[in-house]
Amino acid sequence: MVHSVELLFDPDTDAVVRRIWDDLRAAGVRSQAANRSPSNRPHVTLTVAEHMTDGVNEALRPLVPMLPFVGLIGAPMLFGGRTLVLVRLLVPSTALLQLHHEVDRVCRPFIDGAPLPHTAPGQWTPHVTLARRVPPEQLPAAVAVHGSGGDIRCRIVGLRHWDGNNRVEYPIS
User: Fold this and answer.
1) 5 contacts 107 by C-beta, under 8 angstroms
2) CATH number for position 75
């Protein structure tokens, strides 16, 4: 499993993304709505590592004043190969990129090895996951779902550390 540091949305944005998840599920696409864990929520992953040592949560607290800020959930995108991950881009803004850089800087001393390369500054694609393991033949249904297109103004208000090894959520803000 992994550890990650993630951005969280305000309740209105959270509800909009959850509606998209529900609409995808209603269209027969296995969306994030299938995950019933209380910790499953719309988020944007800032960094991921196999393990983060104790102290990372306290080290992240000084970054809380960088929140909240307004963002834009933009274009749908696909990651993957044989099966696909359907996501929406979180349009990179100065505030978002500065926070990402700071999270990377703060977390590195607490990471055994290095963060996963796709989360490093300059290689990171900020996004909100809508559906995982989407077979290519379901793409027309997925992109036809209302809300999987047009831009969504959002408000980013929280930061959390997710310990996937122990399935524990640590709110930072």
Assistant:
1) yes
2) 3.90.1140.10
CA 97 to chain centre: 14
pTM of the shown model: 0.93
Helix H or strand E encompassing 8:
strand 3-9
Closest CA to 76 of 130, 124, 113: 130
d(CA 74, CA 83): 22
Total tally of structural domains belonging to the chain: 1
Residue 168 lies in a domain: no
In whole angstroms, how far apart are CA 164 and each of 12, 51, 127, 161? 26, 9, 19, 9
pLDDT digits (tens, 9 = 90+) for 105-142: 999 999 988 888 899 999 999 999 999 999 999 989 88
Could you tell me if residue 11 is inside a domain?
Answer: yes
Digit-coded pLDDT (tens) for 90-107: 999 999 999 999 999 999
Query: Measured between alpha carbons, how far is 117 from 50 in angstroms, rounded to an integer?
Result: 12
Residue-range definition of the domain harbouring residue 100: 3-163
Question: Is a pLDDT exceeding 80 seen at residue 1?
Answer: no
